[in-house]
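Deliverable D4.2, example record:
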Amino acid sequence: MTYITFLSNYDKLNYPNNEPGTFTNTLAQTIHLDEGTKYEIALAELSYNNNYVIESDDITFWLFDWRHEDKDKLWGSLTVMKLAHQIINNSVDLCSVLNGMIWSTVKRLDKDKHKYFTYEDNRRIWCNMIPDSGLTLVIQSRLVVMLGAVKHDKSKDILIVGDTKPEDFYVFNGEKRYFKDKREFKSALTGRDFFVYPPKIGLGEEALIYSDLCQPTHLATSLVQLLRILPLAKNRDVVLENDRVVVTFGADRIYVPLMARSSINTGTFHLRTLNQERLMLRGYVRLLVHIRRSLE
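Output generated by the structure prediction step:
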């Protein structure tokens, strides 16, 4: 009957919160449907950027290097580490980025390149601190969630790992070294352990695409307005320019019943992981749907 293209970066005037993971478009012209006729809808094409690029400045951790001496003969240097503009597609990427930031900031650690964060066979991220190494990390709220230390994002959550920093001084080779920064950082982990929850990076292995145009259907124990489930391409396998992925469905389209209505003038879409978390995609998402009279 008809094809309709929806774009996540359009219609910002009516829907200012539109983003790649959740968006609504108002059609230029209302599509009228025949009364008493059943219709069905299918996803015909999906286009998206596969990379998850951190664009905000609020995914951070503090790095406190005990062994940095300033011109006043005081010790300790605190650096705010921002993950903005880093490309992270999976847990291995996240660990690599964090390790690289630590090595490049504390030059004495760059030689051995000890991996402070690793993703291992139990599908958890491990934190591998070295006791008495003069390093303290204060991990801030959103990064705490990404690592899997907590399940949900709470703005006040922090996690301190590494050596516990006292307020005033520490002793190194029998000498008292006085801190410039008098704050105390009490560590929750001075050695090696894994974070309890699965990492929450953004992209999963499959995407669930929901739409208010669909009639509810069964998904496990729930009734949901599910348009399609599809696997997400892995970034390292993508060879298209700008890592943009275009998935086209022809004979393998899956049609689902359209919500009973007399007309269509808007469409809303939500892209989620299997854990029902919002997909963290950059750029824009383009969806092409096909609506036709039901063949049943």
